[in-house]
Amino acid sequence: MGNSDIKRQALVLLAIANKPVCNSKNSSLIHEWLHEILAGTPPKFNVQIPVLFEIAAQITGNFESFASLYLKTIQPSTSKRYKLLEAFAKRGGPFWFAIWEQLNKHPKFEKELISLDWAAPQKPVNASGSKQSLQRVIGSADNGFEYEHALIKLGLSLAKLLEKTPAAYEKSPREISITISSEDSWSELWQQSNEIVALSLIEKEFSVDPRFKVPDWIVDSNSDSHLGDEAKLYWVGTVLRAAALGGTDYTGNRWKQSKTTAYKGVRSNWYKRRMGMMHSPENLVGEYSTVSSWFSDLLCRCLQWPGFESTYVKSQDILTIDGLSSFKRILKLRLTQLNTLVCSASNLPAIPSVVDRKRSPTPEIDRLFRLVTVQQLMPYQDDFSMAGIKLDDPKYKARHTEHLSTVCKIVTKTLEAKRASETVESGEKSYADLIVFPELSVHLDDERIIKRLVDQTKAIVFAGLVFKDHQGKLVNVARWFIPDYRDTGRQWVIRDQGEENLTNIEKSLGITSYRPCQHLIVIDGFKDGPFTLTGSICYDATDIKLAADLRDKTDLYVIAAHNQDVSTFDNMAAALQYHMYQHVVIANIGQFGGSTIQAPYKIPYERLISHTHGSDQISINIADVDLAAFRREVKKYREVKTKPAGMK
What we know:
Layout: H1 3-16, H2 30-38, H3 50-60, H4 63-74, H5 81-91, H6 94-103, H7 110-115, E1 131-133, H8 134-138, H9 148-164, E2 176-180, E3 196-201, H10 229-245, H11 270-273, H12 281-285, H13 293-302, H14 316-319, H15 324-341, E4 350-356, H16 363-366, E5 369-375, H17 383-386, H18 394-420, E6 434-436, H19 447-457, E7 460-470, E8 473-486, E9 489-498, H20 504-508, E10 518-524, E11 531-537, H21 544-550, E12 556-560, H22 566-579, E13 583-587, E14 596-598, H23 604-607, E15 608-611, E16 619-625
Helix pairs in contact: 1-2, 2-3, 3-4, 4-6, 9-10, 9-15, 18-19
């Protein structure tokens, strides 16, 4: 390593520590320029300088000061100022927000301020009335486009707008007005009764938003025209993705900012992001995933980039889209399907997530679904008063982590013992289809333990998480950990199931009710499948309206509980398994016991598949259940006598 390399590393280290050193009068290294900017004396302007102001702002956390310094630096470059600012406008982020605030304070930048108003930071406002600017709705706290139902309606309306008003092509959401059928219901656009009546262009002069310009690589395969259906589908995709994200930069995501203090580099630019967008529901709307993987596939189809492979699209119907007409047809079919899944009595949208789980080709094994209930001891009810409502006390947290890790090892060993007792040959030592943990059993920081268990058992896990923050409020969540195995490796599908009905204890702790949707996990790959699973958190399972809604939609109802009234839940499970006519599973905390698996079989000992009696017990129960038993048509014949001896 040469002296110049050592010098660069030393300069980077000092810069990150915010200890600028300005010794050289004729600095030629970009690292030295960064130090000069940190010291408030920027060097002579060149094309490499702008990004250093953002880096300096990230290092110090003082975005306003370095935004102001940047404007002073570029002020003499009158002819280039727009381009120098546009790069940050497209990139977005806190440094651009600071630049925008400073632009409003500098009269000499009035021209650029007007030209860049398409990138003005959005302030959340409530949408009211039945007609609004699409951008206002998208950026509001009542953005109903977080739901797949509403996004499909928007997609259909955008396609109609293009047919009726070709000038709408490449317009941004702020240039489009939207009218709905039900006033003051912007947050419930998923409702079947709440229709988008019309989209239209706003009659006003707007500066052009370059982010919604369709890239040159989009060419219609039939006409070799940039203005063909492929280009129109791309533009529709940009608006749909922006609506789902709740902002006008359709290339963004909803990843949470890490709390870890570290050098994170510069925010990626807009040009790179649009050629590598991740469309998974978690990136678009967060872990509650109020859109499905089907919508992700739709965005993949619309927002294609050079080198994109159609093999990433799993939904066969989306692969048939070859223009606006087929686009509308597929969206109408999908909307009809989603409307039939709505839990009408509970006023709750249901979001299906299809999971492909190929099993052993042996018919008898292929017919059974391996289910595991885990009854761990921690956390005890009193732990929330001693270790904090989020169980963040360091000493307690270490004990809780160790307990969860040990319980997961017991699960793996129990599955291995079960596999060893079977006569069917299998290359897997431990295998399960679904593992259910109790309510409040897993701390967010211990997700890695659950994911390691999933990797060892290839199972889907439904586990209650310790109370977590959501938009500044504490909520109760049960999380689906779903492994998605592809040729490129294992990926994670995360679905958070919220809780609507709170107990008195939860209310006293300040927990907020939040259940945006009911997740339906559709398991494909079984001989008699597909099977549909769904889950609830403890007290929600007592809502008879929800049970009625789910009865004809699911094959397995899973309940994560932290409940001391075991006898009531025993009776509830016995009632639900018959009235819903499917398997019902309750995984309760070991402090109270009562974890059970029940199904509506005629014979009592077959009806009660497993039940753990007694308190303060760790228990792991494994059951191979026939999820198709209550929908399979079985032919019965009149009984005959046993054949005589010697008859073949």
